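Why does residue order matter? Because the sequence determines the fold. Keep that principle in mind as you read this record.
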Amino acid sequence: MSGIKIEVTTDYVSEQSVPEQERYVFSYTITIRNEGNSPAKLVSRHWFVTDADGNVQEVRGEGVVGQQPHLRPGEGFQYTSGTMLKTPVGSMHGNYFMVDDLGQEFSVDIPAFRLSVPRVIH
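Structure:
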């Protein structure tokens, strides 16, 4: 029903990472596009961040990067954020909670994506 599409790219942030202290920093850039017929506002997010040891960190919050973008049909919004893992490989997935201009609430799945130090996984 929603027509909201999600695209993700990731990067390993080596200059902020300290592998000998189990600190691996990753950035991710998300593009949210409204390919549907109704305007919608992103209200909140719910993330699951999983490291290679199976430890899961749950993150909830309002909007994204301090904003609650309102997307009309055909519009997009892009932002970059980051996370830290104790392992060189992990993954993230979650949901955006949105509301259309008629007050209908809906959820948009954020498909799982990998966080990986380059050349760790072939």
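The chain has one domain: 4-116.
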